Amino acid sequence: MVDALGLGLGIMLTLTVVILHFSKGTAWQPAEDIVDDVLEHRAATVPETDFPEPMSRSIGGGGGGVGAVVSGEAEAEGELEEGEETVDEDDPSSIPDDEADVYEVEFVKEGETIEVKENETLLDAGEDEGWDLPYACREGQCISCGGLITDGHAEEYVEHHTNQMLGEEELSDGYTLTCVAYPVADLTLETGESP
Ligand code: FES
Q1: pLDDT tens-digit profile of 142-163?
Q2: Could you tell me the pTM of the whole model?
Q3: Which residues does the UniProt record annotate as the domain 2Fe-2S ferredoxin-type (predicted)?
């Protein structure tokens, strides 16, 4: 004889399994990815900079910063091809040796007259002779290398590539900065002379 209680429990269990099988569950959804929203919000609220953002602050997780640096360098290099050199046409030192004119420069205190190319400074030429001539910055920004061209207005005899010290009056008196002075004529020079 069939146990009525056991039969009832069996039917209830079967019905429970069938109901669970056809139910829709809890409808749980994974959380939405908000990383891009957060980065865009931060990009909108952090002030712009003049330099490439570090990769940790770039949207998309990096690569952009490095790209910006590389493209910036390429821009700074302009149209230069590999191996190509820039030529500053205002810089007498860029005149090729085989095209440079040569002038006679008398160094009075040293007691010698030497040949100096137009692409060489008076200071360099004197040092090449082994003379211990005065200088400091070698950029036309002090007066340590000062000399006196005894022939007349300095700029009739030398071209100063840079000159941040001598005014028109000193130049007309013949003063020169030998570290940035390239000869354009024969001249007589007294070294160690400043206005
Ligand atoms: S060494 Fe400074 S101007 Fe020549």
Answers
A1: 999 999 999 999 999 999 999 9
A2: 0.58
A3: 103-195
All domains in the chain, ordered by first residue: 35-74 (no CATH), 92-191 (3.10.20.30)
- The residue whose CA has the least distance to atom 3 of ligand 1 is 140
CA of 12 to the centre of ligand 1 (A): 106
- What span, in angstroms and rounded, lies between the C-alpha atoms of 43 and 28? 32
CA of 113 to the centre of ligand 1 (A): 22
Residues with CB under 6 A from ligand 1: 135-138, 140-142, 144-145, 177, 179
